[in-house]
Amino acid sequence: IEVDAASRTKVDETRELLDNVQYMPSKGRYKVYLIDEVHMFSNHSFNALLKTLEEPPPHVKFLLATTDPQKLPVTIRSRCLQFNLKRIPQQMIESYLDELMSRESVEREPQAIAPIARAAEGSMRDALSLLDQAIAFGGGTLRAEEVATMLGTIEQRQLIEIVQALIQKDGVALLQQVELLAEKAVDFSAVLVELIAQLHQMALIQMVPGIAEERGIDAEWSVLSEQLSPEDLQLFYQIALTGRKDLPMAATLRSGLEMVLLRMLAFQPVTGQAAAVAPVAQRQPKQQPPQRTAAPPTAVTPQAVAAAAPTSASMPTSASISNSSADGGSDSWEQMIPALGLGGLAKQVAQNCLLKQREGLKVVLEIAEKSGSLLNARSEKQIRDALSSHLGGEVNLTFVVANSAQLDTPAARAEQRADDARSEAVNVIQQDADFQSLVSTFDGSVVEGSIEPVTKPN
User: Fold this and answer.
1) Is 116 in contact with 97 (CB distance < 8 Å)?
2) What is the pTM of this model?
3) 379, 349 Cβ separation under 8 angstroms
4) What is the mean pLDDT for each group of 10 consecutive residues in the chain (458 residues)?
5) Can you list the domains of the chain with their CATH numbers?
């Protein structure tokens, strides 16, 4: 005896049903009650059913079917054995629907069956209901385009063209496909879900040999999988997942989908080797300086070093630092700091130091007395590691505190350049005729320290 709980929610109807439980079956040994969508019962109906479930007659069996067992009262669930029915595989649903339409002589397109089986989510009953709707929607036939319209999804052909445009880096074609989707009033969030599902299938094809034949995946997806590198595919999948999460926050669902597709064009995966080499490449000089002839160390004066520094348009390598005494080497140290890739306190410490001496991998840095409080074990280690990486060996680093209160450090030079730029800006303003006219007309005065250069000095 099948009972639809959704249409019999009143307690009186439940009591009427239970009044007949006491009677023996006219055929067979048992009287079986199948109550479908039992979670739709009202609380009073559950209370009426509870007494019968506690002491059921020996000739009665109850089967309670529900898609949401958590909605059943605990008193009901505690008196039942719960069996979680497995979802029917999509391939099995497709095979059954195809066989059914063959028996009924329904004209169909093979690619129209998969979306229905996928939308059923493992339920054969839902699949049959959707199939009936799709046939009625198509006027007695089953067409892929009409099924996609009915379900509010994207048809496979258009999804393939979107992936082809991604592979070919064709932004114009992508936006044209989005425009076609908009004309069909497709749910853009559903499009993104479909794209994620197909990218997953492509990843399976790449990594699991024979999976396409086993799962009946269209051969075109296998061809597309060969045209896309695994790195690009994984990047596209991750961008699509993130885009699905961000889609509700976009100005419109369409613009959100467009941005997800454009990100796939804009970003390219970087291999570990390339990522490791990139910072070093940025530190290397764009143009190698001319080689100098060997000369005694005493022949290179501080003035010569200072004069040569501005002519170099690139960062110095480790060879730029003299292997002997580094007196007067403030220029080289100042140019070397950006190449070390330091940040935070370690960079501030380095900018307040001078390269006092270097012999091989032994480096002595002199720090200004007023900046000595900045130095700690962590920043010292960061500077040592950066120098070791830059010079190609383990560096023995020593810090000494200068006796003088002021050193010509990179930080001091930067501060001096900033002061000079501010002074020049003040002079320019004060000599401006319009400014002088304003001051004279309104009997004004300049607020000290309020004038800043338009561009900050390097």
Assistant:
1) yes
2) 0.45
3) yes
4) 78 79 84 88 84 86 88 89 88 91 89 87 90 90 86 82 90 91 86 91 89 81 88 92 91 93 78 38 42 40 36 37 44 80 83 84 83 78 87 86 76 83 82 81 77 63
5) 2-77 (3.40.50.300), 90-151 (1.10.8.60), 156-266 (1.20.272.10), 321-408 (3.30.300.150)
